[in-house]
Design goal:
GO terms for molecular function: structural molecule activity. By secondary structure, the protein is α+β, with helices and mostly antiparallel strands. Helices cover about 55% and strands about 10% of the residues.
Length: about 210
């Protein structure tokens, strides 16, 4: 029962992490314009994401523009996109694999060894998906921080971390943690020894000797 509860907990955490990765990928707030400089007064907030850039007016109206050409984008942004999409696809595969190996499911009940291996394999895929999302968000955040502290970057073009980055970091951590729980939910096999055989008992003598 303990391993089954750990397995269910791991799947729930990993699934929530996968949902968070999707939300983070779709959000445009990967970085937001910084107003840390002096005498900067603006009536709008600027955001940039993986797919579009947005401007929110002081009235609350938001205008977004999808990036025109894929080939004109920076290589770093394209790589970040690829890693996040790969994390989503890997998470989708991990869900199907892990569900097949869940103890509460009826699939593969005749072979418990393969069933446990499927759950562990799903956990490994979840960990890989979480690592891909963690690398993508950390790489993007590192570029934002380097540009912010670069003295040659104009003050009015500096950006800070957006909310999508924090969601991505949390989601990647949940996916990795949930995958680790799935991998640890497989109970260890106990060493089985063949049953000891007793020595055959001698038949009681009847007292009759046959010639």
């Amino acid at each position: 029962m303990a391993s089954g509860g750990l397995q269910l907990l791991g799947f729930v955490l990993a699934f929530l992490g996968w949902i968070g990765i999707i939300i983070s990928t779709a959000m445009p707030q990967w970085k937001m314009a910084s107003y840390a400089g002096d005498n900067i007064v603006t009536a709008q907030a600027l955001y940039e994401g993986l797919w579009m850039s947005c401007a929110m007016q002081s009235t609350g109206q938001i205008q977004c523009k999808v990036y025109d050409s894929l080939l004109k984008l920076e290589g770093n942004l394209q790589a970040t996109r690829a890693l996040m999409v790969a994390a989503i696809l890997l998470g989708l595969v991990a869900i199907f694999v892990a569900v097949t190996g869940m103890k509460c499911m009826k699939c593969m009940e005749d072979d418990q060894v393969k069933k446990m291996r499927m759950a562990v394999f799903g956990g490994v895929i979840f960990i890989i998906a979480g690592l891909a999302a963690l690398v993508a968000t950390s790489w993007y955040g590192n570029r934002v921080a380097r540009a912010f502290y670069d003295p040659f970057t104009p003050v009015n073009t500096r950006f800070e971390f957006g909310s999508a980055l924090f969601i991505g970091w949390a989601a990647a951590s949940l996916a990795i943690l949930g995958g680790a729980f799935l991998c640890c939910s497989c109970p260890r096999r106990e060493t089985s020894y063949p049953p000891t055989r007793g020595y055959p008992k001698n038949a009681p003598s009847t007292g009759k000797d046959y010639v």
